[in-house]
Amino acid sequence: MAEENPKAVPVTTPMLLRALLAYKETSVLRTALELRLFDALAAGPAAAGEVAPVIGAPERSTRILLRALASIGFVVESGPAESPRYDLPPGGHDLLVTSSPRYAGGGALVAASHLEWESMGALTDIVRSGRTPLTVDAGSPGFGYWHDFAAHGTFATRPVAAGAADAVQQWSAGRDGLRILELGCGHALFGLEMCRRLPGSTLTGVDWEEVLPAARKNAAEAGLGDRTTLIPGDLFTVDLAGPYDVVVAANMLPQFSPEDGARLLARGVSALVPGGIGVAAGFTVGDQSATREYGARMLSLLMLAWTQHGEVPTTAGYRDIFARAGIPDPTVLDLPGLPTRLFLGKRG
């Protein structure tokens, strides 16, 4: 059951303006990241005329962009109005400079992708029709967004993968050498984290060929390339091989109708040994207040724009998908401080 909102926030003019103008802040930040403008400030304060040749732009447009960035707090402006200088604020070196190990700017390609931008611009027509206008939707090969998603993930990807690995590690009770299948693996970080925790375990990842380079790269960087097999193809038709001890579907099920989600999960469950475990990670709706489910509800909006029947399920919806796939009554786990939940259950 959703949490009750004890006190509704009144609609105000500033609230309206923030929502209406938010796209400008997104545009300014994404443009700065794409131009690697913050790299140009990594060595210290600089004027617009010094930044301009580094990012390959005229001084006028660089100056206007820097002033806009200063107004939303992503650079610090100092000096006289006629010739200000710009510097990175605290935290800027860590999160905005591409050479930093903690660089988070790649997330802009996921959180503010150009395809998403175009889709949201057509949202009125999408809501009226109830259909995606895309001829190549999110479930089709060649959908470019998944390449960027696999390459960069989201800010929560690794923590959620760690939570899923914790759950599987507890279930395995010290067993090593597990055979893991990850459906729609993308970056494969969920299966790779499980392999890292469980010595001798192997990973088989399945996804479209165009997104598998990210999985190969991550497996090699983790030193797990020799324990990773990648199968290109359609999740609903490709031979999954097997058998496996664990099947993982991370952030996959909202792309499909409940019927197709259950059919997909059932394919993975059928490749499990008796007693093998099925794991799903994803957003849910209906468990918390509307404001706390912001990410889940915005993902549903994106699924409306990008898929034929996709929508973020409720917890009961996930349970039903698991039951249809052959795993009745899965365990539901919250991940403290993270927006997604885990669903786990054993094949009989």
CATH architecture of the largest domain: 3-Layer(aba) Sandwich
Low-confidence stretches: none
Strand composition percent:
5-15%
Alpha-carbon distance between the two ends:
29 Å
The beta-strand count equals: 10
Largest pleated sheet: 7 strands, mixed
Q: Round the Cα radius of gyration to an integer and report it.
A: 22 Å
CATH superfamily of the largest domain: Vaccinia Virus protein VP39
CATH domain class name of the largest domain: Alpha Beta
Largest sheet strand order: 6-5-4-7-8-10-9
Average per-residue pLDDT, rounded, comes to 90
- Categorize the overall geometry: globular
H/E element order? HEHHEEHHHHHHEHEHEEHEHHEE
Structural class: alpha/beta
The number of distinct helices, counting runs of at least 4 residues, comes to 14
Describe the fold and architecture.
The protein has 348 residues and is α/β, with parallel strands linked by helices. It has two domains: 13-100, Arc Repressor Mutant, subunit A (Orthogonal Bundle); 145-346, Rossmann fold (3-Layer(aba) Sandwich). The chain has helices at 13-34, 48-55, 59-71, 92-96, 108-111, 114-121, 123-129, 145-152, 157-172, 189-197, 212-221, 258-270, 294-306, 315-325; strands at 46-47, 76-78, 85-87, 179-183, 202-207, 228-232, 244-250, 272-282, 331-334, 341-346. Strands 6-5-4-7-8-10-9 form a seven-stranded mixed sheet, sandwiched between helices. Helix 9 packs across helix 10. The protein is globular. The two termini are 29 Å apart. The mean pLDDT is 90.
In short:
The chain is of the alpha/beta class. It has helices at 13-34, 48-55, 59-71, 92-96, 108-111, 114-121, 123-129, 145-152, 157-172, 189-197, 212-221, 258-270, 294-306, 315-325; strands at residues 46-47, 76-78, 85-87, 179-183, 202-207, 228-232, 244-250, 272-282, 331-334, 341-346.
